């Protein structure tokens, strides 16, 4: 059965009008306001391990239906259904014409041959209304996806857990013997967005460590407990906590317990100095908050070197027992909001957390290898083309990962299907060209792609990828994936990929 088509729009040449921007955006349920496009920022200092451009990744702009930011309520509402988001604005389904393969080849082939792209390149364009491929070059070839693998992570997690799933962080009471000080265990559930901050972006929607401490203190006082031994439980995750790229400002140690992604500054996205012991640091902050509410938290010195994390072993590390009693818990925003935040800002910490949450749901070990198996199995259930795919991690920082342009397009096509509303945030979280997230400083204001291209970027040294959706000049919603490796000029490669997406926006191509 054909899917609803987008509204038929007049052919666009040159700068988009505000009406055209609004109509193109509303095809995916987006509300945006025009503004100046920021100048390109510098590249981060991670060299061979570049994740995204600093300014783009850390820009304080929400993306898609991004639930974070000032004014949002403590518990964000679930976003509207896919049918409302993806149907055209009052247009009958199927009225916009489909571009032809020959016409697309005429305009895309010359760009795909651009010397700015590396020796390995692949491209695919799919008609979102029918799921039919309308253009393809080496589309089945497995290439390094960089951060576009986050699309696979998003779809797998949403499919496995559902868009309304929330990740809990708990405090439990371990009764002591007669005369002993009772123990409180802070149990990590894998929420990387748990925040210890009082103010800042996302603090009004994220689970609050301060609130958890306040609720815990209240529960302890009700039990006439004023002093506790504090420990923490990170046993949900197994395997190496250190990402294969090593210590890096683009990602902290992968832990089931952390606050503010282990950031050592006040940022909420982009590269930043990271904690070498995120669970221990979160526990220290929790202890301070408990004491602010009149509960003395007994602390113990750290010792030894941990073989798993490389950080010092902490004698406060424990595992909550079956005898423990619940004291309090806080929950993350819904998974749909986490996916949007991850895709908008190319957030590596959220990506690795969602890959492990998928593993937990599949009863696999919550490790890099377990997440690989779980993501692959979940995508196989969705009928995705997995030939040559290797999910080395959930974020795309590992260069050993491989996916095809076919797979990226199929994932996005599945997420645009009104019959799969649970996957919709894998599309609504995509950055908007010239406006949000990692595309905020790409696409000049007079580009036909500005405002109507929504895409996930992917950047490592020698690797440039772009995958997303675009409304063409006739109002047809198209899904695309462009991949290249071996590039030597990242900015030139990005411009070529952006031009390919803009060409789709400006093309009826029949």
Instruction: Please compute the radius of gyration using only Cα atoms.
Output: 23 Å
* Shape estimate: elongated
Distance between the termini: 23 Å
Q: Output the structural class.
A: alpha+beta
Q: What topology, given as strand order, has the largest sheet?
A: 2-1-12-11-10
What are the secondary-structure elements, in order, as H or E? HHHHEEHEEHEHEEEEHHHHHEEEH
Stretches where pLDDT falls below 50 for ≥5 residues?
Answer: 4-93, 302-312
In which range does the helix fraction lie?
25-40%
Count all strands and give the number: 12
Largest sheet: 5 strands, antiparallel
Mean pLDDT: 83
Helix run count: 13
Percent of sequence in beta strands: 5-15%
Q: How are the SSEs ordered, and which strands pair?
A:
Blueprint: H1 18-26, H2 54-58, H3 82-86, H4 101-112, E1 120-127, E2 133-137, H5 149-161, E3 168-174, E4 183-187, H6 209-222, E5 227-233, H7 278-292, E6 296-298, E7 302-305, E8 312-314, E9 325-331, H8 335-345, H9 348-361, H10 368-381, H11 405-415, H12 425-428, E10 453-460, E11 463-471, E12 477-485, H13 490-505
Parallel strand pairs: 4-5, 5-6
Antiparallel strand pairs: 1-2, 1-12, 3-4, 3-9, 7-8, 10-11, 11-12
Describe this structure in words.
The chain has 510 residues and is an alpha+beta fold. The protein contains 13 helices and 12 strands. It has helices at residues 18-26, 54-58, 82-86, 101-112, 149-161, 209-222, 278-292, 335-345, 348-361, 368-381, 405-415, 425-428, 490-505; strands spanning 120-127, 133-137, 168-174, 183-187, 227-233, 296-298, 302-305, 312-314, 325-331, 453-460, 463-471, 477-485. The strands form 3 sheets. It has a 5-stranded antiparallel sheet with strand order 2-1-12-11-10, with helices on both faces. The longest helix is centred in the C-terminal third of the chain and has 16 residues, at 490-505. It is elongated. The two termini are 23 Å apart.
